[in-house]
C-alpha cells in the first residue's frame, strides 16, 4: 500500500457528488487500509466533507473577498509537502476551483510536487446528463495543468447517478497519459440502493458507522457494503499498484 500520497478533489461543477466521492476515498484510506490521514475541506459554500465527524476533517476557509488567502493556502501546501507520514485528502469546492488552479499555476505547485517526488492524485468527477459537458471541460482544464508533470496523475470518478456517461471517449483518450485510473460509481437502478446511499450521505455517516447503527437494517447494510466494496476494489488498482512502481 502506497503511503504519504496527496489527494486533491477538484471539479468546478457543483452538485456532482464531489464530496461524496472524497468521503469514500477517505474511508478507503483510513478505515479500509488503516492509514493515518489528514483531511481538510476548503469548500467555502458547503463543507459537506467536514460533516463526516468520524473522519476528523478540518474545515478551512481559504477565501477572503473572493480570492484565495495566500497565507492559508501556503500553510496547507507546505504541510503536505513536508509531512512524510500522513496521507492527505483535501476536498475543494466548486466555487474555489478557478482560484485554486490559479494559485497552483502562479506558485509553481506542480513543479514543487515533482521536485520533492511527492505522489499526487487529483480526483475529479464526471457525470452523465446535463452536467456532463461541464465536468468534461473541467477535466481538460486539469489535464492542461498537470500534463508536463511526472508525479501528478488524474483519478477520474464516473458518477452514474445523474445518468449514463456517453460520447466521452475522445476526451478520455486525450487525457489518457495522465490518467491513473477510472473509478465507476455505478447506479444500481434500485430504489433501495439509492435510498440507503442518500440516507448515509444526508446523515454524514461512514460505512463503519452505518454497519453498527440501528437505523440501517440487515439488508440495507449489505447493500451499502456492496457499493463500497466495489469502489474499494477499484481503488486498490491505484494505490496497491503504486507501491510496486
UniProtKB/TrEMBL annotation:
Domain of life per record: Bacteria
CobQ/CobB/MinD/ParA nucleotide binding domain: residues covered: 11-156
Name of the protein in question: Conjugal transfer protein TraL
Organism of this sequence: Volucribacter amazonae
Higher taxonomy: Bacteria, Pseudomonadati, Pseudomonadota, Gammaproteobacteria, Pasteurellales
